[in-house]
Specification:
100 residues; mainly alpha; Serine Threonine Protein Phosphatase 5, Tetratricopeptide repeat; 5 helices; ANK repeat; repeat; Ankyrin_rpt-contain_sf
Length: 100
């Protein structure tokens, strides 16, 4: 189920936004009903996960969703964009062009 969660509150979309950086899988999940706004037990969204793992293609894809709010805060008071500033290769996580 796309709405299922693990013990940390992660959905399949959260898991797909990790280090594999598989934006095609993320796109597929969203097209089939996965919620890009879903929050885990720590209030992290899939975009938080993508930035945390420097999943550049996934972060770019999520950022380009028309209605995705990239300034939502989690419990640690980091915005999705602010959190990316502390991640590896953060300067390229939110480039204007998709990474190759």
């Amino acid at each position: 189920s796309l709405k299922g969660r693990d013990k940390h509150g992660w959905t399949p979309l959260h898991l797909a936004c990790g280090p594999a950086d598989d934006y095609e899988l993320v796109h597929y999940l969203i097209q089939h009903g996965a919620d890009p706004y879903a929050r885990d037990l720590n209030d992290y969204t899939p975009l938080h996960v993508a930035t945390q793992f420097s999943a550049q293609k996934v972060a770019y894809y999520l950022k380009t969703l028309d209605d995705l709010d990239t300034d939502t805060d989690n419990d640690d008071l980091f915005s999705d964009l602010g959190m990316s500033n502390d991640t590896y290769e953060s300067d390229s996580v939110f480039e204007s062009e998709p990474p190759s």
